[in-house]
Every structure is written in C-alpha cells, then in structure tokens.
Amino acid sequence: MPGAPAVTVVGDVMWDVVTRVGAPVAAGSDTPARIVLRPGGAGANVAHGLARTGRDVVLVAAVGDDPLGAEARRLLRAAGVDARLHRASAPTGACVVLIGADGERTMLPDQGANALLAPPDGPPPGRHLHLSGYVLLGPARDAGVAWLAAARRAGLTTSLDAASAAPLAARGARALLDDAGPLDLLLVTTAEAAVLAPGPEAGAVRALGRRARHVVLKRGAQGAAWGGAEGVTATAAAVPPPGALADATGAGDAFAAALLAAWTAGGEPGDCLAAACAAGAEAVTWTGARPG
After folding, report:
1. Which of 11, 28, 275, 285 has the highest CB neighbour count under 10 A?
2. Beta bridge partners of 233
3. Is a pLDDT exceeding 80 seen at residue 102?
C-alpha cells in the first residue's frame, strides 16, 4: 500500500519445532509424532503479517550468526520486511511447540539470541512502534524499555502485546505495565487480562485503559473487544476459519498484524477488530506461525 505509515516492530525471531502427537505423551518412553521446522517468533510473525497487508514495516530483533539466523533474515526480506537483525553471540532462538492429541498447544522456548536484543541508537523509524511483550518478560527487558522510551521521545505512537499469561504472572503484572509506561494500544487475551487486572472483562478493560489509551481484548471463540478507561466501546464476533483447522500457533500474531495495519491506516475500532478476527481465523488453517 503506497504511502502507508511505516511500523517498527521490536521483538523476537525464533524457529518453531512444531511437534504434533497423536496420543497422550508416554513419559519415559516413545510417542509417535509429526515434526516440522517453521519460522516463528512473535515479533517476526507480526512484521511478516504487516508486510502481507502491504505495510512498510521494519523488524528490529537479534539472531545468531548461524544458518538459522541467515535463513530467518532471508525469508523475512523475501516477504517484504526490512529485517534489521543484529547478529548476536548466541544461537538463533528456538521453540518446541507441542500440540497434544486434544489439540492443546504447549510451548517450550529457548530465547537464544533474542536475549541480546540491542537498545536503540537513535529514534526508531516510522510513525508507530510495536513491542512484543516477550521482550519485557525476558533478559532483554531493559532494551525493550529503551525502545518504547525512544519511540515516545520521537513522537511515535506505541503498542504492546502482553504475550503470554504464565510468564506474565511470573514477572508480575504491575512490573510489566510499569516497564511499558504509557501506551497508545495494549493487546491482551482474556487470560492475560485476568493476570493484569483481575475481575470481570469490562472492569479489566477500564482498569487497563488507565495504562493505555486503547485496549484490545482478544476473546478467542467470543471474538474481540475494543475499549479504554470508559469501558468497552466496540466488539467483533469471531470469524469461522476458512478451511480445516491445522494449528493455532501464530494466530494471535496474525490478529495483531491485521489490527495494526488497519489502525495505523486510520481504521475505526470495529473495522480494525473485524480485520483482526478474520486474520486470526485464517492463521489456524496452516501449520506453523506463518503461511507457506
């Protein structure tokens, strides 16, 4: 989309070892599985999704000086992402995505080079900066805080995806929100909202609206909601997947990418939510976090 506002995504690059088992895992023994290696990482997934919409997008992240890092860079650039990936003195990050017989997904991440994300050395490019919450939940926290601060100083709007409920609870809700500072847009799932602001959904949106100008609540099969300190102001129903269910990995990142693409182009909340729900539904029809 010519003339679209540039978005800088700061986050992680991973390789996902997607492991699908057809029976309960036999502890201490063997369980047959189907295994594929797919490119992933929340930051990289969002940047890739933004590029698919035609957005001018920059990805700031770290990879190892290894073949997986080189391949991650090649794939992102081939997709239209301006991938500014620091070569760190650690292996490229990897994550085992275990999909059980019941379809439940469990992730076992090794941050690798993502822990060595560099702070900014000047104003971030573009008009909007999006930060993956995984950055604030891990060893690269200080760098993430610095990127958000640099974006605010440069007059960029900012957004944060809270990332994952379990590490969020371990890190501490107040700590994450304090690290993030004032935000223009905060994306949370219902599980993450329960950690950040326990209570009914509407109350959680209002409470989080004191930290972010806009709050997007991802409600899974119930769709999504948009609101702020005044409460919920727009909702969208979930969209049925356009094909057979394959894997939910990356569905939240696809949702975030479509939402950011619409919002940074001046879209209304309801339209942004509808586009995001459609993208999330499409993402569950392929194996891994990205199409192809």
Report:
1. 11
2. none
3. no
Q: Say whether pLDDT at 233 is over 90.
A: yes
Q: Stretch 79-101: mean pLDDT, rounded?
A: 94
Assess contact for 73 and 89: CB atoms under 8 A.
Answer: no
12 C-beta neighbours (distance < 10 Å), count: 29
| Cα 4 versus chain centre, distance | 21
What is residue 188's predicted lDDT score, i.e. its pLDDT? 97
Per-residue pLDDT tens over the stretch 25-76 = 889 999 999 999 999 999 999 999 999 999 999 999 999 999 999 999 999 9
Average pLDDT over residues 118-126: 95
Query: What is the CATH T-level fold of the domain 7-13+41-92+115-283, as seen in this structure?
Result: UDP-N-acetylmuramoyl-L-alanine:D-glutamate ligase (3.40.1190)
For the entire predicted model, the pTM comes to 0.94
Q: Which residue has the tokens 């602001």?
A: 197
Question: Where along the chain do its domains lie?
Answer: 7-13+41-92+115-283
